[in-house]
Amino acid sequence: MKYLAEFQNPELARGLLDDIRAAVTRPWALMEVCGGQTHTIIRQGIDQLLPDGVELIHGPGCPVCVTPLEVIDKALAIAARPGVIFCSFGDMLRVPGTDRDLFRVRSEGGDVRVVYSPLDALRIATENPDREVVFFGIGFETTAPPNAMAVHQARKRGIRNFSMLVSHVRVPPAIDAVMGSPDCRVQGFLAAGHVCSVMGTSEYPELAARHRVPIVVTGFEPLDILEGIRRVVRQLERGEHTVDNAYPRAVRPEGNPAARAMLADVFEVTDRAWRGIGTIPLSGWRLSPRYREHDAEHRFDVVDIATREPAACRSGEVLQGLLKPNQCEAFGTDCTPRSPLGATMVSSEGACAAYYLYRRLGTPTTPLEASSVV
Amino acid sequence: MCLAVPGRVVEIAERDGARMAVVDFSGVVKDVCLEYLPDLKVGEYAIVHVGFALQRLDEESARKTLALFEELGLLQEEFGDPWEVER
């Protein structure tokens, strides 16, 4: 119970844990889909507070981690071109491509800029009409609507020097793929709360029924996660498999209709390769043909990119919940947040980074180390 | 990047044909697009992700979450400058 004192409301946490403990009669394996939830779990030691037998498996819900190497290499190739201003969220800077990352491109003279919002990239495009401004559009259903709006605005306002390298991914096909794997041990899901804030819950009942797996929409704070676990375990013990919303303060069943309408206008569903996992059918979005003018893949010739994954990196198994980060031989030795082999170590939401930063290495981390991952 | 943070709308204005707001995240102030929550009003709270308000939130939930994020250093992670961090 040593971490319980760090909860915002230890009494509530204790009550939820007591409930979970009272409900459990046999072992259960649950997957938290979202990397943000993984960080809360590891940071607060939630996995170690749970009763024996209740295991949390870390899911593929980190957009930085699952962006395929080929797309990273395309980004690096575009960012290195003269005349290009390459804009990205900060998380992507250190994600290794085949032989370098965006930090390296910048140090070699590339104009790489970190933006907080895709609209910042659009503003940079209006301020630099003689340059090509390219935004790196990655992320799940939470990030896709903002990025869609930037492309929509660019077309509406006639900003021709703005394009987007798009590699968006969708959560429900990933859940389907995890459940379809022959090695799958997952028996219940904590679904990512903010993805559902946008998309609502309508995609989940079919998945829950077909795979006979409970899916509980869960928030990001420690108490949210304990409540999500409590509800999944309760369903499992009763033999139920329904969709339940444990994050109603931020998730309505219909999600955000305006955001969903924009997604449908700007993007179209496509098969997408996930780094370390492989191609998952219909698991991503690309720009629809109407917006081809703003598609960086169309505007820049980046088709013949040679990619090479580091052999020692086992990110793919980590992302599928088949391997815990500290079971990888390179973990903490050849692979650290300062010198990552794979994306799960570099991203602030990656499971390997979470294990490294929050004590699972066996050595205390310093604030400097903790802040070096962006 | 995955993190979505609750913030309070301080000011609303039309800009470049889009409904925009100034939003306060526990002292950090950012421009936020309201196109996906067009009826959000000054004083209300919303979950904001990469500069877009995505879902309305009640004040009490928002304040609790902000306090927790601040305590855990997550606001710095979300809004900090990665070039600065690198040096």
TrEMBL record, chain B:
Belongs to the HupF/HypC family. It comes from Streptomyces uncialis. This is Ni/Fe hydrogenase formation protein. GO terms for biological process: protein maturation. It holds the Pfam family HupF_HypC. Gene3D superfamilies: 2.30.30.140. SUPFAM superfamilies: HupF/HypC-like (SSF159127). GO terms for molecular function: carbon dioxide binding; iron ion binding. InterPro entries: Hydgase_assmbl_chp_CS (IPR019812), Hydrogenase_HupF/HypC (IPR001109). NCBIfam families: hypC_hupF.
